Amino acid sequence: MRSFLFPMRRERKQAELLLVPMIDIFTVLVSFLLMTAVFSRIAVMQIDLPSSAAAKPTTEPAFRLEVIVRQDGFELSDGKRVISTVPKLKGAYDLLSLTEHTLQVKREHPTSEDASVLAEPKVPYDELIQAMDAIRSTEVPATDALIAGQGAAGAQTAAAGAEPVKIALFTNIALGDAP
Hints:
The chain is an alpha/beta fold. It has helices at residues 2-5, 20-36, 95-108, 125-136, 145-148, 152-160, and strands spanning 65-70, 73-77, 82-87, 114-119, 137-141, 164-168, 172-177.
């Protein structure tokens, strides 16, 4: 009667923790995440930012191009006088004209590499970057005077044909606020 009123307790087996299926799941999960990961390429650009200290440079460069990005277009100057202006074309910045004007300035000052890009406060960041790219380098015909002035390498390129050659214009670019 005792067994009827108080049923016998069953002994419990010890629970086993199965790690193999969990390892399989993590293996599949890791390989899936590695295959679907997006690896972006980050380019680092060397630029000169203005310092907080108002230190005077020891030697002033012979020529420094200033490109002022305004709401209504670009303004090129040498720090003392305005060289040229490039107005917006149909509401957009005219980057091709900016490159042409910069190329003309480079022809006048072939050894200069310093430039400043000064932006007004409401200028979009993307427009600032595009202006920096426009004054950094361009393609010119192999017969251009800038290529011919580079010595033997320029003469070999000019003899090879009239294919366009990529040249550096103003590669040392500093950023700042427009006056």
